[in-house]
Structures are given as structure tokens and as C-alpha cells.
Amino acid sequence: MTRVQAYKFKIEPNGTQLRALRQFAGNARKVWNLALARQQTQYAAGESFTNAFGMNYWLPAWKKELSYLKASPSQTLQQVMADLNQGYQNFFAKRAAHPVFKKKGHYDSFRYPQGYELDQKNSRIFLPKLGWLRYRNSRDVLGTIKNVTVSCSSNTWHVSIQTEREVAQPIMKATSLVGIDLGITRFATLSDGTVVEPRNSFKRHQRALAKAQRVMSRKEKFSRNWKKARARVQRIHTRIAHVRQDFLHKTSTTISNNHAMVIVEDLKVGNMSRSAAGTVKEPGKNVRAKSGLNRAVLDQGWGEFRRQLDYKLSWNGGMLLAVPAHHTSQTCPTCGHVSKDNRRTQARFACVECHYENNADLVGAVNILARGIAHLQGEGQDTTAAAVGQATAAQIACEVNGARARQQQEPTEVSQLAFG
Ligand SMILES: [Zn+2]
Questions:
Q1: What is the pLDDT of residue 112?
Q2: Are 396 and 386 in contact (CB under 8 A)?
């Protein structure tokens, strides 16, 4: 099967290259914002969506009007259109929020679909209109290069090299099925009783961040000291993202190595983050509580965690299954009674019918597992052994994986996830 993988390295540009990098990133951002604005204008006027091919026809006029755009390699500007098109396709398919305008200094990047050359022996990479760039060669790049993304965070530039290669269909060593309940007080509770405590990187760094932001707000905007303060704020954001990323990777690796199939709630993290403004009926209800929850949601990175679980499981020959979320925390796993009263406190589950009691997160995980098994049975999979904790999960995972498109993916960027 084909494995798509990204390798990210720090690059060491010289002065000329650094100026070019900034300009190309700025141009990519400009074109993105122009194209997005035009799509929105068209939409407001009742016109239809213009795809990447159509958007490329907008470029010549913009280059004429804004001559600095001509400095960029054309393919990087066309790639912006392809990326914006993809952003819209994800939005149309309800996989992602509507594309947003890009701000300067907030994940500056541009992408080359071709024309690059990688010289691993000499730790350098050739990029059109930039020339050879040295990079910090920390591991071998395997496979055929499909594209190269150049990005900047906290004044450090990176290349992310995406490759494709054929690998043997992995044989899953683990055999178990497990349900996972993701939460605030406990990051993850597994149906087998394992508990993963959260690492509130955001909370731990929050005070430092708040202080740095206060310092920044007291400086005169765009002054030298303001820029210094802003750089410090960005550094703290980057540190938080790294700590969290490290935690998520360690956790997702352990779980994906130990289980053949992982079942999670089909949580719409995006919806949860947006709902704080309330509904028409109940405007701004629980705004404060929700913004606290949102912060924790973002801090914990559930969406990113699921993404990692998904690709790591498929690399191992296992799979991730998402099941509907409603009432998983209110359903009694022994008698099936559904009631809010079963959940008198956040931490404790006590069934009002049969008096079954347990930790609420564990109950959630057990219910998620049960729903996953029910779903597989609905698809005609033999889960009799899995249901009693034996070993058909690996077999199911392999069958389902075999039926799926044989593509594995480790999508490129993770740092853009973080904070506004
Ligand atoms: Zn009960």
C-alpha cells in the first residue's frame, strides 16, 4: 500500500534567501486573501464557486496590478489556488470550517509542487528562485517527493517534504478492541480501565503567556519593544504547541501499538469551539463555562489526537472507528437505562434503575466500545469473540482496512492547529 509521509526540517537561509522567503510567503498570503475575497464576493452575488483551474486565470491580472507578485515562483501561487480549493472542498464536505483570511506572521508558508531537488548527502535542498538551502538533516527522507512546503514559525524557517512510497501491508500484532472517552479532567479513559492524565500545557504556560501579553499591550504598537514583546508571546505559543504535540504523539503511539481497533466518539470539536456564543433561543448561555471548556478542548488537542490515532493505527494495520456521541455519558452499561439522573456529578455514574456505579468516564468508554461493536455487527462483522474480550478485532481491522482505499497518510502540518 502507499504510505504518505512528511519530513520536517529546519533550514538555514542566507540573507538574500531570507528576504526571498519572506516575500514569497507574503505573496502567497496576498494571493490567498485576494482569491478568498473574490470567492466571497461571487458567493454574495449568487455566482457559483470557482475551482483551482478557474482561479489560476485570476493571477495574470493581479500580477499586472501588483508587480511584486511576479517575484514568486508561479507554481507557488498556483499552489495557493489548489490549497484554497481544497480548503473549500473540505468545507463543502463538512470536514472543516470555512477558509479564513491569513494574517501576517501567523503561519507564513508557501508550497512547491515541483522543481525541487533534495541532496541528502550534503544536507541541502534546491528550491526554484531560492537556490540551494542548507537544512538540519536529522533523518533520512524515504520515498518519492510529492511536494515541498516552506513555512515559518517564531522566526524559524522549515521545509516539510511530503513523500509517497510503497510499503508492505502491516500485520497487526495487537488484537484487542478498546473504547476511549476523551475528557477535560482525564485526557483519555479507556474501556479497559487505563487512564491517561491530561497535560495542561496551556494551563501551565498560561500565566507566562498572560504576563507576556500584558507586557506587549503596554508597549507602543509597532515599536521596537512591542516587536520584542510580540516575539516572546509567539515563542510561548510555540513552546506550548511543542509540549502538547509531544504528549499527543506519545499517547497515540502507545494506544495504537496496544490495540487493533480504537473506538471514539464522533465529536465535532469545531462545533464545540464555536458554540460559546449560544443559540438564538438561549443566547450566550453558559458562555463562561463553555469558553473554559473550549480552552481546554483546544489545549488538549482532541482533533489532532484523533488524527494521529487514525494514521498510526492504519500504519500498524489497525483502525479507528467513530460512533455517534449522544447519551454515551448517561446510558447505563448494565441495564441500558438512559437518564440525566444517572450522572449526578461530573465524576460519578450511578444508575437510578439498577444502581450500577462506576467512574463516569469509564462508563462513557465502555458505552463507546459497545456502540462500536454494535456498529460492526450491523455491518455483518463477526464480533462474538471480540465482545467477550478475545481476538477478532485485528481480523476485523484487517478486513475493513482491506476494503478501504489502501492509502495511509500523515498529513503535513500540525503547528498551524494552535492559537489565534
Ligand atoms: Zn442500570
A1: 96
A2: yes
Residues 329, 343 contacting (CB under 8 angstroms): yes
| Cα–Cα distance, 246 to 179 (Å, whole number) | 23
The pLDDT tens digits for 129-165 are 999 999 999 889 999 999 999 999 878 999 999 999 9
Backbone φ/ψ region at 157: left (φ over 0), alpha (ψ -120 to 50), beta = beta
**CA-CA distance, 205 to 194, in Å (whole number)?**
27
Please determine, for residue 231, whether its predicted confidence score (pLDDT) is greater than 60: yes
| Spatial CB neighbours of 97, under 8 Å, sequence gap ≥ 6 | 91, 270, 274
Amino acid at residue number 203: K
Q: Tens of pLDDT along 39-95? A: 999 999 999 999 999 999 999 999 999 999 999 999 999 999 999 999 999 889 877
CA 191 – ligand 1 centroid, Å: 17
What separation in Å is there between the alpha carbon of 297 and the centre of ligand 1?
30
Q: What is the pTM of this model?
A: 0.63
Which sequence positions are flagged as catalytic? 181, 265, 361
Q: Which of 84, 6, 5 is nearest to 40 (CA)?
A: 84
Q: What are phi and psi of 117, to 5 degrees?
A: -145, 130
- Distance between CA atoms of residues 175 and 260, nearest Å: 5
Whole-angstrom CA distances from 296 to 105, 196, 273, 320, 415 are: 25, 15, 10, 23, 17
Query: What distance in angstroms lies between residue 418's CA and the mean position of ligand 1's atoms?
Result: 40
Give domain limits for the chain. Answer: 2-166, 170-200+248-420
Check if the beta carbon of residue 387 is closer than 8 Å to that of residue 263: no
